[in-house]
Amino acid sequence: MSESVIHVSELTRRFGAKTALASVSLSMPRGAVYGLVGENGAGKTTLIKHILGLLRAQSGSVRVFGLDPVADPVGVLSRIGYLSEENDLPGWMRVEELIRYSRAFYPAWDDVYAEELRQAFALDPTAKIKNLSKGQKARAGLLIALGYRPELLLLDEPSSGLDPIVRRDILGAVIRTIADEGRTVLFSSHLLEEVEQVADHVTMISEGKIVLSAPLNDIKESHRVDGRVLSLDEIFVARVGKA
């Protein structure tokens, strides 16, 4: 492991009377899959927005590739691929137009890789985005996020509402391929079973506070009951007190 791709120190964020993040500290070295798990509203998306520079730290600090994402958005965002649950793509575009439009923003865009992804995801280049199924839109969004081979891939609840086959495509081959190439993935989800399948390191967050953060193997080894290793779901309930 080399230097941290993401380093968050004592990050606190409030929205009015609500504390969304409370002194959150995280360090994510290069080349692994990090699962960020918690209930909806636990603070996962707020943390990711700070990493993307969409929110400024009220106290504490956020560094991505050693840079402040608010002060140097181009230096940070040009190295990040991002896919969220909303995945807002222009509905009037065709798939091939979306690819051409996106490649114009990224000097490092890899045409061959993007075409490999398009074929692997079975996306018709002439199909309009608005006519794609939710699963096909997720695949298109992932293609755009991956087409320039970003150093960091941020997935914020990307598989919510998708069928198991699409979730398998996103969570299996793609995530592991990214990590195996020495790049880094931060995968946020409330679906702990999926995170358990792909993550090297898991951070549990509840009500804006980190309750557990460690390599997945260490977490499982330290949570045994009568010799049985608990599932991540069971560990979450044990640590947070709710499913």
Q: Output the strand order for the largest sheet.
A: 5-6-7-3-8-9
Average pLDDT figure: 88
Q: Biggest sheet, open or closed, and with what strands and sense?
A: 6 strands, mixed
Number of extended strands:
11
Low-confidence runs (pLDDT<50, min 5 residues)? Answer: none
* SSE order, one letter for each helix or strand: EEEHEHEHHHEHEHEEHEEH
What radius of gyration results from the CA coordinates?
A: 18 Å
Quote the beta fraction: 25-35%
Please state the overall shape, judged from the principal axes of the Cα atoms.
globular
**Helices and strands: which structural class?**
alpha/beta
- Count up the helices: 9
Helix percentage range: 25-40%
- Distance N terminus to C terminus? 33 Å
